[in-house]
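My current task is to audit a protein record that another person submitted. I need someone to confirm that the C-alpha cell line plausibly describes how this chain folds. Take the sequence as given and treat only the C-alpha cells as open to question. This is what I was given:
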Amino acid sequence: MRDKDRTKALLLEAASRIVKEKGFEALNASAIGREAGRAPTAVNQAFGSFRALMQTYVEGKDHWRLLFEGVGEVSGAAVGSGVSAGAGLDVDAAGLKDLFVRLMQDNLKVFWEDPEMQVLIARQMTVKDKLMRAVSDKRELEARRLLALTDKYFAGTDVSFKSVLAVVLYGCYGLVLHAHNNGSTVSGIDINNDREFEVLNKTIEQILGWAWEAVGEGDGFVVAGSGDEVLNPGAVVPASEIESQFPLYWDMWSRINYSLRGAGASPELVNLAGIPFRKFKVNADVRWSDYHYLIVYNEALVRLVEDGFGERGFGVEAIDVDSLLRLYLVGLGFNSVRFAAYYVEYLQGLVAGLDVADRVRVLREQWEQIARAELMTELRYNRYRPSVDASLLEWIDEKLALLAEGTGA
C-alpha cells in the first residue's frame, strides 16, 4: 500500500475510534491526526481538507450502501446499470413484498449491531448538517429507485407504501437507540431480549404484508417504464408527493448541472438536459408517466457524472462530453422537440462544406452511434411523440438517400 493510501486508512480508522469512544462532536483534524499517530496537518495532506475526510468517512460507514448493493445483487443488472430498477426489472407483487421485508429486517439487524452507525444516524435525525444532508439525499435517491418498482401497484390507491416504510424504518431506529442508549422499553418492547427482537422482525413482515394485502395484487395501475402495458399514465401525481420529492430532485439537478458544465459540456446542451427537471418544477399537474420518467432520467445522469463521463458502451473510442451527453439523452428516450431540433442542427453542421464521400461517411458514423444509444431504456419523455432515435435515424436515412441519388443533402 502506498504511504498516502496507508495514511488515509489510518486516519479513517482513527475517526472511527473517536466516534465510538467519544462521539461525533469530538471529531476534528487535530484529534484525528493524534489518534492516528500522525501530525495535525496529515488530514489536509491526505484528503485535501477535513470535510473531504468526513465525507469519505460518513459515506463509507453508511450501512445503507451495503444494503442497496445487496438488493442490486438480488434484483439483477437493472438496478445497477445506470437506469432505474423500475425501467427494466420484472418483479411481481410477492417478490417486491419479500424484497422490502428483507431490506427492513436487514436494516434492523445491521443498525442494531453497529453502534458507530447509530451515532451517525442519530446525528442525521437531530442535527442540521450539510454533509449529513448530502448523505441522506443520496440514500433517498437510491430508495426512490426501488420504490419506483411499487408504483404500478400502489399509485392511484389510498395506500402510501412509502409512508408505511417510513414508519417501519424510523420505528426501528427509535427502538434501537432507546435500547442501546438507556436500555428502556418502548410500548413494553425490549429488543435487548432476543425473543422480543425476533418478534419485531416478524412484525415488520406483518406490517408490510398488510400494506400489500390492502391493495391486492394487480390493483392500482401501471406506469410507463414498468415493462408492462401502460394503463393510466396520465393520472395526476398527488401534490403532497411532488412537494416532498421535488427539492431532492432539484438539488440533484443542480449538482448534475455543475458537473456537466465543469466537464466542458456546452451551456445550450446542458440547458436542454434540464428540461425534465424544470417541467417537474413548474407543472402543477405532473402525470405519473412524467414522474416515473424523471426518476429514471435523474438516476442515469447521476451515474454518468459519477462515472466521470466514461464511454458507457456507445462503441466510440474517443468522444467529447457533448457527443456523449447527446447520445446519452437519446438512449434515455429524451424525445423533446427542442432536443430533436438541436440534434438535427448539429448533424447539419457536421456535414456542411464536406464533399459527398465525406458526408456519407460522417452520416453513417452518426447513424451507428445513435443506433447503439437506443438500448438504455424504453421510456419516452413525451409519450405522444415518436422516439428520438427513430426520428434521427430516419432523418439520416433520407439524407443518405438523397446523396445516393446525386441530388445532394
Observations:
- Confidence is low (pLDDT under 50) at residues 73-90, 217-231, 311-318.
- DSSP finds 19 helices and no strands in the chain.
